[in-house]
Design goal:
single chain; alpha+beta; 4-stranded mixed β-sheet; globular
């Protein structure tokens, strides 16, 4: 017997379609029933790759007795947070205001008017972990609703007022200091784990945007910050958070050593990490970083790409009802699949031993257990033999793993996350000089554009042949930034025009002129109790930070000051908060750095059909210049956009010519790739 979720497109909602709970999707029908029957709403928010969401489903939502209690006492509503991040953002605040940590599954109790009065995350079926049982919570909440309604209403009003206040309070506008990235990085360094790399202890997330701030600080002259980034990148790549057989990063590490991960893989994490490793390759030229970029791209192409080239959302942590089962190994499995010599190398290199390292299961999460030269010494063979045997073992184990039941894949195509991956691929193609990455980005952008953008409005999600849900600020911003990346990597003018159209639409739908800030959801959204204006990064960059980057870059390309003026308002309003809490504002600090230090504008003046320009373009794309703007300009373009910086200067001796402009002042005409490389190193 299925419930109303069987008719939904969201894979997460459909996972709950056969629960005995009478689930509703978010919408008027559920709200009307709650009002008609004077029942509180139980709102449950999660996503398909969420391990604890699956646990709570098995323990509670699939349990007939618990479901009967939910159905008797509440109107029950399920929301996929990947489809409705606006609702998730608002109601996560309730948990935090009640002094608890947010997360998923999110469990919120609402009045029929959508006002929250109690919230938590995971609740166990019996009392444990210092938490009451879910059934106890259900009865207590309904008892309060029936017998202490005035108290409930007062709490709901107070929480709603607090949410509105928290999402509309503005900081005093301040000038962005020239050394903003150095100051932010120094504050971040107080939280850096000098032993294992990364930030904090356990659980440990990549915190890519904070590492980007440190890498920018290294570019600005603080070498110590670069050393910290190098430590974190190496530790993550060596740990079990990295999939040593199939590539790609898992969501986070359950320990401080990056050893045992939470196994879900998210498109957005891997996009952000791809861009960070690509920039690290620019900074240091370490081929391990380039290899990591290519391995992420290979995983995305193999596991996360649909028939039209767009990217799926997530891979689950669980398979066959167990977390991590797809990814872990036992010694006897290696012995059965590999030669004796290969098994000996693989066990030492990847730490596979009796007893294992994964939750007392006897299985092992593969990790770089020791340097390959130490493996060679231990076995009395050459390092070349170690590499050859390990690569053969990798190939065989990967092939065997492919025969296992795979974790569930959520096949939603989400605009914002596709934007992050498209942008990362396009940018990395320039860093590595790898056209395959650019082709992946171009194909994905064309696919997303065709399915989600009709020329005037953007939709957030494509699933099973249908574009759904009005896009949010982050969708417009990340897709616009991706289009700019594709333009700079390929010279595609259509991509730049798409970026302009998306940014203009974002200003129209989300910019609040009175508040001088961007809203998360469109100004005409009607089913929200508050309009958030959050510049704080969460697992992904905030829409505010992404649109600030897009505005600054687009303004430079088009030579239109209106874009920079809006970005300046956003940056000045948030600089105080960013310097106070840089861990939550990493992406916006990157935009502040671009604004404060100024862009490095590289213009290559060359005819469109002149292939000799590619050598200069290749140098510009490979250079470590975090605030670069790159444009190819036709000699007859005139005084338009970036070309206006040149003051009429063009090609030198009829050859493709590069100009590097800093602080709106352009340097000498350069026709030699080596001269351009030296200029960009300064």
């Amino acid at each position: 017997m299925s419930n109303r979720l069987a008719n939904e497109r969201s894979p997460y909602l459909r996972q709950h379609a056969h629960n005995p709970v009478e689930w509703y999707p978010w919408g008027d029908e559920a709200l009307a029933r709650a009002a008609a029957e004077d029942k509180p709403i139980l709102l449950s928010i999660g996503y398909s790759a969420c391990h604890w969401c699956h646990v709570m489903e098995r323990e509670s939502f699939d349990d007939p007795a618990t479901a009967a209690l939910m159905n008797e006492l509440f109107v029950n509503v399920k929301v996929d947070r990947e489809e409705r991040p606006d609702l998730d953002q608002i109601y996560q605040l309730v948990v935090q205001m009640m002094g608890r940590s947010g997360g998923w599954p999110l469990t919120v109790f609402l009045t029929p008017e959508r006002r929250p009065f109690y919230a938590g995350t995971y609740f166990p079926p019996v009392e444990r972990y210092g938490m009451p049982s879910f059934a106890t919570v259900l009865r207590a909440v309904r008892e309060a609703w029936d017998h202490r309604r005035d108290e409930i209403v007062r709490t709901a009003d107070e929480l709603t007022s607090d949410i509105v206040r928290a999402t509309t309070t503005r900081s005093e506008a301040r000038d962005v200091p020239a050394d903003v990235v150095i100051r932010a990085a120094k504050k971040l360094s107080t939280r850096f784990d000098e032993t294992h790399g990364g930030f904090g202890s356990r659980p440990k997330f990549p915190n890519t945007m904070a590492l980007d701030v440190m890498l920018r600080a290294a570019h600005a002259g603080d070498a110590t910050m670069g050393e910290r980034v190098r430590k974190a990148l190496d530790a993550m790549r060596a740990g079990g958070i990295w999939d040593h057989l199939g590539g790609g990063f898992h969501r986070y590490s359950t320990d401080e050593r990056w050893l045992v991960p939470h196994f879900e893989k998210m498109l957005y994490d891997n996009a952000l990490l791809m861009r960070l490793y690509a920039d690290a390759f620019r900074a240091w030229g370490d081929t391990r970083d380039a290899d990591t970029v290519r391995a992420i791209a290979s995983w995305a192409a193999r596991e996360m790409t649909d028939a039209e080239g767009a990217f799926y959302a997530t891979q689950d942590a669980d398979s066959e009802g167990e977390e991590g089962k797809f990814f872990v190994w036992r010694p006897e499995e290696l012995d059965a699949l590999l030669t004796r010599e290969e098994s000996a190398v693989a066990k030492l290199a990847w730490g596979v031993a009796e007893g294992g390292n994964f939750e007392h299961s006897g299985a092992t999460v593969l990790h770089a257990n020791r340097p390959l030269d130490a493996v060679a010494t231990r076995l009395g063979i050459s390092i070349d033999d170690v590499r050859a045997r390990l690569e053969s073992a990798r190939t065989k184990l990967f092939a065997a793993r492919e025969q296992r039941p795979k974790p569930f894949r959520d096949e939603k195509v989400i605009a914002t996350w596709n934007g992050l991956m498209i942008g990362a691929l396009a940018d990395a193609s320039g860093a590595l000089g790898d056209r395959t990455l650019l082709e992946m980005a171009q194909r994905a952008l064309a696919s997303v554009r065709a399915r989600l953008w009709d020329g005037t409005s953007l939709r957030r999600v494509w699933m099973e042949g249908e574009a759904r849900i009005d896009a949010f600020l982050e969708d417009h911003a990340d897709l616009a930034a991706a289009a700019i990346d594709v333009h700079e990597a390929s010279g595609d003018r259509d991509a730049l025009e798409l970026a302009r159209a998306l940014v203009d639409r974002a200003i129209e739908r989300f910019w609040d002129e009175d508040e001088q800030s961007f809203r998360f959801a469109a100004k005409d959204a009607r089913d929200l109790i508050a309009h958030t204006r959050d510049a704080y990064d969460h697992a992904v960059p905030s829409g505010t930070s992404s649109i600030a980057h897009a505005l600054l870059r687009l303004g430079a390309h088009l030579g239109e000051g209106r874009y920079e003026r809006i970005a300046e308002s956003v940056l000045r309003a948030n600089v105080g908060s960013a310097l106070e809490q840089p861990m939550g504002f990493g992406h916006l600090i990157g935009a502040m750095d671009r604004y404060a230090r100024g862009a490095t504008e590289v213009m290559i003046v060359a005819r469109e059909d002149d292939d000799a320009a590619e050598a200069l373009l290749d140098v510009a794309r490979r250079a470590w210049a975090p605030n670069r703007v790159l444009a190819r300009i036709d000699p007859g373009a005139g005084d338009v956009g970036l070309a206006s910086r040149l003051g009429g200067r063009g090609q030198k001796d009829g050859a493709p010519t590069a100009y590097v402009c800093r602080a709106r002042a352009c340097g000498l005409a350069l026709t030699s790739p080596d001269d351009l490389a030296r200029d960009l190193e300064d």
